[in-house]
Amino acid sequence: METTIRTEELTKRFGDRVAVDRINLEVRSGEIFGFLGPNGAGKTTTISMLLGLIRPTSGRAFVLGYDIQKETAAALREVGAMIESPAFYPYLSGRDNLRVLARAAGLPDRRVDEVLEQVDLSSRARDRFSAYSQGMKQRLGIAAALLHRPRLIMLDEPTNGLDPAGQLEIRNLVRSLADSGRTVFLCSHMLHEVEQICQRVAILKQGRIIAQGEVAALVRRGVLVRTIGERERAEALLRATPWISSVSDCGGAFLIDAPGDRTADINALLTASGVPVAEIRKYESSLEEFFLEVTAERERR
Amino acid sequence: MINLIRAEWLKLSRRPLSWILLILFLVLLVAQILTQFALTIIIPVQSGVVNAQIEEWRRGVIFPGIFATALSHVNSLGGIFAVIFVAGAIGSEYSWGTLRTQLARDPARDRYLLAKLTTIMLMLTVATLLAMLLASLLSVILSPILGSAISITSSDLINLIPATLRALYVLLPYVLLTAYAALLTRSVLGGVAIGLSYIIVETGFGALALLRVLGGVWALVYNLTIGQNINTLTLMNRHAFGLRPETTAPLDLTQLPSPLQATIVVAVYSALFLVFALILFRRRDISGPG
């Protein structure tokens, strides 16, 4: 599959502080890629480097096959972006703000009206940007990103400040963009949102990628067993069972890689050996749980 | 480049600050002309310097002196307004975060900055032409009251073109210094503070003029300041339309740089500020609003 974004040991330092630390990313064409991390993790710095706004201290980045440092203009010709909160001229209307961008790109005003329609902002297009609600500002930011029909769209926290209905609307819009063959690079700290729409994710913490892969592969599945005391004996019993391939800790309980239909066998195994069982059930972790787990693991190290 | 200039024009022409500055600038021009007119009528005819001053004011209200009055307004108070306008146009892009929105789509920073500066100069040209038009209209009304016929010769009209260009050329180093300052400080306030400080130090307090008193190399340094060379160019504009400020003020024409030197020195300062601004803008990271 063709690669849309690739970084090699991409690093940015601000004085002594390392904002982005040797990250290696790979975003494939046509996918919705989630770039996750808590606030201050380095997501916006990374996106700014991918857009040529911030120069990397070291490492390289390729966008749509172009080296972003050497061929910035060629790379950005087919990239639309919304970075952090949408930034527009407060005294201009939403439509005029887009007209400024359209004029600079040599696009006709007709295209402005099309994207306003696409993000459902036509009825308020002539209102001043300063009078817009947060949700309208976000939608205008997305409209600006779509203006020149880019192949790659980078959205930084696009659902920030939106109510649940607005969030759903944006998620549907992002899905429709991917359906039309575009690649979407979605920065977010809202893990449930990313889990719902992204195929692959990278998790960033303190400037480093701590996990990267298919969403389906990052979430954990198995049987969750919680015992009342007797932890060491229970663990030994489970590890000695041939049809259990792995046993790991999951918030004080055991997460067992075993077929979901063998919960009764696990219960029988433990109770027969005198280990009281408090809870036993099929388990599928969310991306949020995975995120908390890997970040906690990092901190322990 | 044309597309970028069109985009900049849309931004700046819709900005309330642009209109507020233009209106204030024109109101102050009207006030200046009316004051000169009133003083010409009110102060009784006397002898000596006072009489010469009154005559100079009268000539500044009627044709063709009114053109010199308007251009002089452009190069005095207009300079202050230009500094605020430029600092606003560049510094706000940082404070609103809009610079990032723009450069994330078109990363050619040199072209972006040059388009912005070109648009600013085009708008200053429009403001200058409006000032000339308004001053001319006032002169048409006031000249008969002063007993003067409205007469504009073809040479006056021909003089208008180089004089207007000269007035805009005089604004150029201040525009570019302010642009550099706004980029350096990433703020409107920083641009205004540095731009105005330079004007105030140079003209307001006459601080740099003290160098001339020291003589020798200091006098030479003074002769290379922007203000001293601009004095030559603004004086040329006054002379072009029949005004003689040296008859009413202690102005030693022999101390002024030649027109050639003045043109070169202003060009050198402008080029330096422009190059500094371009280098800074090209190298700096563009971060979020702040």
How do the helices and strands line up, and which of them pair or pack?
The complex is a heterodimer of chains A (301) and B (290).
Chain A (H helix, E strand, L loop, with lengths): L2 E12 L2 E7 L2 E3 L3 E5 L6 H8 L7 E6 L2 E2 L4 H5 L2 E4 L11 H12 L3 H10 L15 H13 L5 E5 L7 H16 L3 E6 L2 H7 L2 E6 L2 E7 H4 L2 E7 L3 H9 L6 E5 L2 E5 L5 H10 L4 E8 L2 H14 L1
Parallel strand pairs in A: 4-9, 4-10, 7-8, 8-9
Antiparallel strand pairs in A: 1-2, 1-3, 1-5, 5-6, 10-11, 12-14, 12-15, 13-14
Helix pairs in contact in A: 3-4, 4-5
Chain B lengths: L1 H12 L2 H27 L5 H14 L3 H11 L1 H19 L2 H6 L5 H34 L11 H32 L2 H17 L5 H5 L1 H8 L2 H15 L18 H25 L7
Helix pairs in contact in B: 1-7, 2-3, 2-5, 2-7, 4-7, 4-8, 4-12, 5-7, 5-8, 5-9, 7-8, 8-9, 8-12, 8-13, 12-13
What is the total tally of β strands of chain A? Answer: 15
Largest sheet of chain A: 6 strands, mixed
Number of helical regions of chain B: 13
The residue-averaged pLDDT of chain B reads 89
Highest-level CATH class of the largest domain in chain A: Alpha Beta
Order of helices and strands of chain A: EEEEHEEHEHHHEHEHEEHEHEEHEH
Structure explained in plain terms:
Chain A has 301 residues and is of the alpha/beta class. In chain A, the strands form 3 sheets. Chain A has a 6-stranded mixed beta sheet, with helices on both faces. Chain A starts with a strand and ends with a helix. Chain A contains 11 helices and 15 strands. The relative contact order of chain A is 0.14. Chain A folds into 2 domains: 3-217, 3-Layer(aba) Sandwich (Rossmann fold); 220-284, YebC, transcriptional regulation domain (Alpha-Beta Plaits), CATH 3.30.70.980. Chain A has helices at residues 43-50, 72-76, 94-105, 109-118, 134-146, 164-179, 191-197, 215-218, 231-239, 263-272, 287-300, and strands spanning 3-14, 17-23, 26-28, 32-36, 58-63, 66-67, 79-82, 152-156, 183-188, 200-205, 208-214, 221-227, 246-250, 253-257, 277-284. Chain B has one domain. In chain B, helix 2 (16-42) runs parallel beside helix 7 and helix 4 packs antiparallel against helix 12. Chain B is globular and about 65 Å long. The mean pLDDT of chain B is 89. At the A-B interface, helix 2, strand 7 and helix 3 of A face helix 1 and helix 6 of B.
